Amino acid sequence: METVIDIRGLTKTYGTVRALDGLTLSIPRGGVYGILGPNGAGKSTLFRTLLGLIRPTEGEATVMGGRIGDPASMRRMGSMIETPRFPPFMTARQVLEWLARAHGGVTSAEIDNWLQRVGLTEAANRRVKGFSVGMLQRLGVAAALMTKPDLVILDEPTSGMDPPGIQEMRALIRSLADHDGVTVILASHQLQEVQRVCDRVAIFNKGKVITEGKVSDLTASGERLRLSVTPLAKALSVLGDRATLDGDVVVAAVPRAEAAAAIKALVESGVDIEEARWIGADLEDVFMSETGWTGVQEQNRAG
Ligand SMILES: Nc1ncnc2c1ncn2[C@@H]1O[C@H](COP(=O)(O)OP(=O)(O)OP(=O)(O)O)[C@@H](O)[C@H]1O
């Protein structure tokens, strides 16, 4: 596997807080890679470290073969960290022209193309001080990509966007990976979006990677058998702690290899099975089980 980022034992401490705690991770070239984790898990700290904005306390990382801060590697990397800020009196086009002059090698046709790809053609000549958060995010993405990086890091690229904006951003991110050959690394709390757009993800907690893999593998490993049965109580007692009740159906965490035996046990106990089908876990289920988060805990906190 060709990698764009190799991280070995990266630690960043702030006083007693270990924002990154011996983090080790390799990110493959190509595709869209998601970094997930609850608030404070260390996602932004990792991005800032990779971009050379903060120094790690221990450990090392290479970005496209170069050490952190290596100018040749940094030139091949674009980024948008949090909602970007631009001089408010400039128009969107002026912002890109200004950044293009600083970087060099970006034509005005390319600026037009990026304005169009991020959906800002109509707003191109409006001052950014009137822009919504979502519009600033789009302009930030155009600014990050205009210099034709091989790798782009996007921290919460859809935060503050409305559903159509999120959909457009998803299509843009996919097209960057699929048609422009850019490796996209993004952090997001919007797990449904991540599941739709990312090829692989790493789930962080407390400065460490707790799970990493292809989205399809992670969600397949959480498959459940969904059973419409009567009587419910009998089915629950036969399946034991493998089963939970979801409304009026039983959801059983039974491996495929054991499914036939579980169904036979139900039938032999006098349970009628009206329907049995497999349902995949979604990324939210995987995230919650890996990070130990439960809806009940969250409701208790809110209450
Ligand atoms: N400059 C700083 N000074 C002190 N502590 C910091 C600093 N930056 C981050 N931290 C702490 O480091 C930990 C990791 O923070 P970080 O912002 O990397 O998490 P995150 O996963 O990006 O969170 P979020 O999802 O909320 O953006 C947190 O406990 C945070 O409070």
Automatic annotation (TrEMBL):
It holds the Pfam family ABC_tran. Residues 5-231 form the ABC transporter domain. InterPro entries: AAA+_ATPase, ABC_transporter-like_ATP-bd, ABC_transporter-like_CS, P-loop_NTPase. Coiled coil: none annotated. PANTHER family: ABC TRANSPORTER, ATP-BINDING PROTEIN. Belongs to the ABC transporter superfamily. This is ABC transporter ATP-binding protein. The lineage of its organism: Bacteria, Pseudomonadati, Pseudomonadota, Alphaproteobacteria, Caulobacterales.
